[in-house]
Fold this sequence. Notes:
The protein is α/β, with parallel strands linked by helices. It has helices at 20-31, 44-53, 59-71, 76-82, 88-99, 104-109, 135-145, 173-178, 212-219, 221-237, 259-279, and strands at residues 2-3, 9-12, 38-42, 113-120, 125-129, 155-157, 160-164, 184-187, 241-244, 280-281. Strands 2, 3, 4, 5, 6, 7, 8 and 9 form an eight-stranded mixed beta sheet that branches. The chain has a two-stranded parallel ribbon with strand order 1-10. β6 and β7 (160-164) form a beta hairpin. The relative contact order is 0.21.
Amino acid sequence: MERLERNTGLVLEGGGMRGVFTCGVLDAFMKHGLEFPYIVAVSAGACNGMSYVSRQPRRARYSNIDLLRKYGYISLKNLLMQGSIFDPNLLYERFPNDILPFDYKTYGENPAVIEMVCTNCLTGQAEYLSERNDRQRMMAIVKASSSLPYVAQITMVDGKPMLDGGIVDSIPVQHAVDKGHPLNVVVMTRNRGYRSTESDHKIPHFLYGSYPRLRVALSHRVEVYNRQLELVERMEDWGEVLVIRPQRPMEVGRVCRDSEKLERLYQEGFQEGERFCKNYTI
């Protein structure tokens, strides 16, 4: 078994419901007691990362699969009634405070640093935010990081309008390096070789009309993401990152509600996490 440097970072990609792969990986990490001093996470990765830092195995899996089946919190009705296709009240109020209690105490006492990536709608730039004690601000940050453009409302954090961090920094490995972690474990939610075939296009003024720099960022989103995928693969080949990823093309979409597909993806993530823990420790 290879021992990693103690300052090795952990980078968690987002991807909506594709994040159940990350749930499995992190549950395997918790099973084997694998902890990192620094975590930077985006969107669904931020949600899952919080349960990892609070040391609550299977909490994220239960939220993403069992409670989705029970409450059906992804729907067009939510989009029409609450402005978000994911029920924000259920996910960021009732789940952590009542239905599926979040261990705020353990989270706050964990010495690991966790930063969550949000996109500042005014600047069109990424912000890397962290919170230990203020529960309201903590939930605002993770909600903002997970607020997908077009299907979620803008979330205010520190008086600034924020959206999904994946708009500008889907895989923040360069940020982790800049923060002093030259080696990072990167948990991806796409197989190696994947590239988005979507086309970038200019965002019309009637969408996010008050945020011209956000529109610019959105108009280059696919190009930026594909460049990051290339960067990660290049760094992996050079031995600068260790990557855990699905081994086959993804059958789960950002807003998937198929519990069988989600369970298969979770199990794949757990198996890949187990494989990693058999080879590496910190």
